[in-house]
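Module 6 notes. Inverse folding takes a fixed backbone as the condition and produces residue identities as the prediction. Think of it as a translation problem where the source language is geometry and the target language is the twenty amino acids. Below is one complete input and output pair. Work through it position by position during the lab.
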């Protein structure tokens, strides 16, 4: 069976020290998962329920890229995040078993057109224009969970032109990785290739042309992104 035209290849993320890459199936993202970030966005932190949005897999952008300043925004923000790479199916999985489906972790940037997101939010409209756009899901190489070790209070930081802007620990997450996988698996048949961006700490802010962003999480490969002129 032939197709009318060829599509771009499915994006894939390098795995540290391995030849085979991680093909990306779906991209899930968590909103307001650090209390201090929820507060800076004007919301109280609650543990009632986590909430999610998605990005198109074609939004994947590899660490080390220089991107053009994103289209249609005058207030694009960085959001430094831990990304979970799912390596096995999970459907209605118990929290106690949820970490068994994690293949590895990576540093990620949930790039956000904040002006468009806030305008949509204030009108009760979907967030898609603010969150799901080209090169908006930046990701560094994945580290296998066996090499990363236990999820504890690893430091997560983002620097913009060498100034530290975000600085927290992974244990600050309101919903931890097991909570998120167990919850999301009630709504989706999670599958190998799915990525989960787990939310950002406080300190988000605007990017500018000429910026260099460097994000780090203890035990993982750092993420880097440079911002070039708008098209
Ligand atoms: Mn985010």
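Target side of the pair, the amino acids:
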């Amino acid at each position: 069976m032939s197709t009318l035209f060829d599509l771009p290849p499915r994006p894939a993320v390098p795995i540290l020290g391995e030849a085979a890459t991680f093909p990306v199936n779906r991209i899930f993202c968590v909103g307001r998962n650090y209390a201090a970030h929820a507060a800076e966005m004007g919301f109280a932190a609650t543990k009632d329920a986590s909430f999610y949005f998605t990005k198109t897999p074609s939004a994947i952008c590899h660490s080390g890229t220089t991107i053009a300043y994103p289209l249609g925004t005058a207030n694009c923000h960085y959001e430094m995040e831990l990304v979970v790479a799912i390596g096995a199916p999970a459907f209605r999985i118990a929290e106690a078993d949820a970490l068994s489906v994690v293949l590895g972790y990576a540093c990620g940037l949930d790039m956000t057109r904040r002006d468009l997101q806030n305008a949509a939010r204030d009108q009760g409209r979907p967030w898609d224009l603010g969150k799901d756009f080209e090169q908006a899901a930046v990701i560094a190489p994945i580290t296998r969970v066996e090499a990363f070790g236990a999820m504890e209070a690893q430091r997560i930081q983002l620097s913009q032109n060498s100034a530290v802007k975000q600085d927290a620990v992974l244990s600050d997450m309101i919903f931890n990785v097991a909570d998120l996988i167990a919850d999301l698996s009630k709504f989706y048949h999670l599958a190998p290739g799915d990525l989960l961006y787990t939310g950002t700490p406080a300190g988000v802010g605007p990017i500018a042309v000429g910026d260099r962003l460097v994000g780090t999480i203890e035990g993982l490969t750092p993420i880097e992104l440079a911002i070039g002129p708008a098209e």
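Reference fact for the lab report: Residues 88 and 211 are 37 Å apart (CA to CA).
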